[in-house]
């Protein structure tokens, strides 16, 4: 996730790479949920057009607001957003459609049913599909007034966290905040970043989150995998260090062999025969 700032607005960006695009048979596909401007979203894409809207010759793309567990029935979120299909050959050919929308509980999706023609999308010379992969993006700005009213809703995904036993509302808010911190850390960390400090931070957040007794079976494998990356990263660094040491040793060996050749030449010049290292030292005495 990246941020694009101006004097009055902050757009945060998400990129979705869709592999094996030509093999898609579904009428619609959705990205994994992602967090931008403090809220959870997903991209919904109709690779053959939104047939429910009688679209068959254009790509249809929408930005959907994910429902959260603690949203009131009358929630509202004013959003400026851009949906993008990247040109992988010529960046100047990238297609961007912009929109402003007032998201409400009964209208969580907004986008473009006629985003671009399927003819242009599928044309290999156009550059929108390369090696059967299409790259789609979203940039989102949410007004500060909405963000203050619905602070921390990004971490309350109804599709996943569930209480096993009743808790107070304050505890629930803290729990969802802890969950959000774990999700953000997982989404923004690379494998190479999972060093000892990063793993300790994730472990602390995870231990804190478990206290709230959520059903965390949906995210636990990802957390455990990330925590296990520390050993993998350490082993990888050890291998790289050994490779570097081997290079140094080879250089030292070459230098030692060169010095040995020089010593041999000196022995010959002095009329001293080269001896086996296991021979007795007395046999090394030079005799005319």
What key phrases describe this protein's structure?
five-stranded antiparallel β-sheet; 288 residues; 26% strand; 33% helix; single chain; 11 strands; alpha+beta; six-stranded antiparallel β-sheet; 5 helices
Describe this structure in words.
The structure is a single chain. With 288 residues, the protein is of the alpha+beta class. The protein has helices at residues 118-122, 144-149, 169-188, 196-210, 220-269; strands at residues 2-5, 10-18, 29-30, 34-36, 39-46, 58-65, 76-85, 95-104, 109-117, 129-130, 133-142. Strands 1, 2, 7, 8, 10 and 11 form a 6-stranded antiparallel β-sheet that branches. A hairpin with a 2-residue loop joins strand 10 (129-130) and strand 11 (133-142). The radius of gyration is 31 Å and the shape is elongated. Residues 146-170 have low confidence and may be disordered.
Name the assembly state.
Answer: single chain
Mean pLDDT, to the nearest integer, reads 77
Instruction: Report the C-alpha radius of gyration, rounded.
Output: 31 Å
What string, H for helix and E for strand, traces the elements in order?
EEEEEEEEEHEEHHHH
Number of strands: 11
Class of secondary structure makeup: alpha+beta
